[in-house]
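Comment thread on ticket #2218

A.B. wrote:
> Attaching the input chain for the structure job we discussed in standup.
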Amino acid sequence: MDQSNPPTPPRQGERASARRRPPPQTGTLFSGVRLGSVSGFEIVLDYSWFIIFFLVLGSFAGAVFPAHLPELDRITYLWMGFASAVLLFTSLLAHELAHAFTARRRGIEIEGITLFIFGGMARTRQEPATPGDEFLIAVMGPVASFAIAIFFYGIAAQGPTLGLGEPGQAVAEYLGFLNILLAVFNLFPGFPLDGGRILRATLWKATGSLRRATRIAAGAGRLLGWMIIALGIWGLLVGGSVIGGLWLIFIGWFLGHAARASYQQVMLQKLLGPLTAREAMSPDPETVSPDLPIDQLIHDYFLRRPYNSFPVTDDGVIVGLITLSHVKGLSRDEWKGKITADLMTPLEDTLLVDPDAPMMEILEKMRLKEVRRVLVAREWELIGIISTSDIARWMERVTLVEEEAAV
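C.D. wrote:
> Ran it. Output below, let me know if you need it in another format.
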């Protein structure tokens, strides 16, 4: 049961039949702007992509091409910049598709591809099964970028024959250079860059432990990020390159953050990957009635129980969720005359999952829907609840075990 957008809860006379009839399925959720799909891979633009797109467009049209071809007019520079920005991100998409197609051939399920502020990411449901799979998937991205660079350099060389003109040749030549730069940068040995994944595959093969290899490769990624930040600070203070220095600082910060987040994602997959909602949930959570007065809800539940949320059920059928955040902004005078149903999040706005749903799938839905709690239910009857604090406690325990094992 996928209840990210469940239908209207059944009325009193409909509840008996509702318990026997599972709610209908809903579509796939995504973050950002969905462009479509390529060979079944959903392509999504993260909102941060638009920031970098216009920055790249401005850099191309306002600085790079005017310096390279000073005799052209501003409209030509603008079109050259726009074409370069679009083709650059098309190249990034091709880089990620190379990863995705290789992963699919190795039996790894790909949810889709997200393009974000500094590149892209093929979203997988599980880690590669062997070091060889990891190496092959990682190396295909830079291989694709080198191939694209050769393609654009070939177009630039054949520009007169193809009738491109000087502006078209300059765009093709610069894109060839940028794709080589993309390939080389991705080969740096810091996770989650492709070079970091190659390093992880090598360490995994040597140690036999994916978790240990990921920890070391992620550490290398954070170190690489700090080195890039230091280079950017040097450029600001000594080299006199303000824009270049700021870009390096931003890239270094982003890489370090991505390394940390990627390691946490691997840990989540190792910890929660084998689990279903039934195994991870807190079973049989305490519930409240939709008719419960707010003052009673606060005094008898939020102030006397160690919970920040309560599922709301009516005659055994789940109808919503009430949380501490719903009531904490109310004054005592506003409590009067209000009941739980007035403030709760209704069922259609909550995230419900089947008890047999995989935990990694649930985590992705929580992230995309930006919710902190999931209700586990079957045929409208509540079975359990999963919160981000539950998951954080799991992660804390695993991190402690990892630190002890590393000593």
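A.B. wrote:
> Thanks. Noting for the ticket: The CA atoms of residues 65 and 76 lie 9 Å apart.
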